[in-house]
Amino acid sequence: MPKFGERVFALRIPGAPTGGPLGANNVFWNDEFVATEIGQVGTQMDGRGHIGMAFKGDDKTEMRFYNGFTAAEVDAPYGLKKLGVENVKPIISIGHLFDLAGLKGRSLNLGEEVTVADLEGCLARQKMTADAIKPGDCVFLNTGWESLWNKDNAQY
């Protein structure tokens, strides 16, 4: 997937065995080392402490996050003191895919509106009715834009 800026995801095996030998068969192993910046290098879930606004330069008492918390109240060297993603309750829900690209036989164009008729067409094509979607369900739209990934990244 396209990555933001110069970010990397690197998995390496550092070298000579890092564990063992153990047991009757003298098993040994090499550990894996992962170095990455998880943001925008794959799927992720941001906590409310991911993005803030700076009102007066780099003064942490004037940098604000969700609900008015300052960077001085939130930031810590090894994790956020408040607003971290670890505080988000588990999210499990039924998902419904609206295959717009399949319905239209092509990817949607840049700026092309998704209409109620499009959504109704997807439901009919997938032999579903609108009442199958309940409050709390997740709805996903397949626009076909993923076909541009690694083919036309400028457009993607």
SSE layout and pairing:
Blueprint: E1 9-12, E2 19-22, E3 27-29, E4 33-36, E5 53-54, E6 63-64, H1 71-74, E7 95-99, H2 100-104, H3 116-125, E8 138-142
Parallel strand pairs: 7-8
Antiparallel strand pairs: 1-4, 2-3, 5-6
> Looking at the chains present, what oligomeric state does this protein adopt?
single chain
Proportion of beta-strand residues: 15-25%
Helix content: 10-25%
Query: How many individual β-strands?
Result: 8
What form results from the Cα inertia axes?
A: extended
Per DSSP, the total helix count is 3
Structural class estimated from helices and strands: alpha+beta
Extract low-pLDDT stretches.
Answer: none
Average pLDDT works out at 87
Order of helices and strands: EEEEEEHEHHE
Strands across the major sheet, in which order?
1-4
Rg: 23 Å
Number of domains: 3
Q: What is the first-to-last residue Cα distance? A: 10 Å
Main beta sheet strand tally, sense and closure = 2 strands, antiparallel
Nutshell version of this structure?
The chain is of the alpha+beta class and 156 residues long. The chain is 12% helix and 19% strand. The protein contains 3 helices and 8 strands.
Describe the structure.
This protein has 156 residues and is α+β, with helices and mostly antiparallel strands. The chain folds into three domains: 1-44, no CATH class; 53-87, no CATH class; 95-148, no CATH class. Helices cover 12% and strands 19% of the residues. The protein is built from three helices and eight strands, in the order E-E-E-E-E-E-H-E-H-H-E. The chain has helices spanning 71-74, 100-104, 116-125, and strands spanning 9-12, 19-22, 27-29, 33-36, 53-54, 63-64, 95-99, 138-142. The strands form four sheets. The protein has a two-stranded antiparallel ribbon with strand order 1-4. It has a two-stranded antiparallel sheet with strand order 2-3. Strand 5 and strand 6 form a beta hairpin. The longest helix is centred in the C-terminal third of the chain and has 10 residues, at 116-125. It is extended and about 60 Å long. The mean pLDDT is 87.
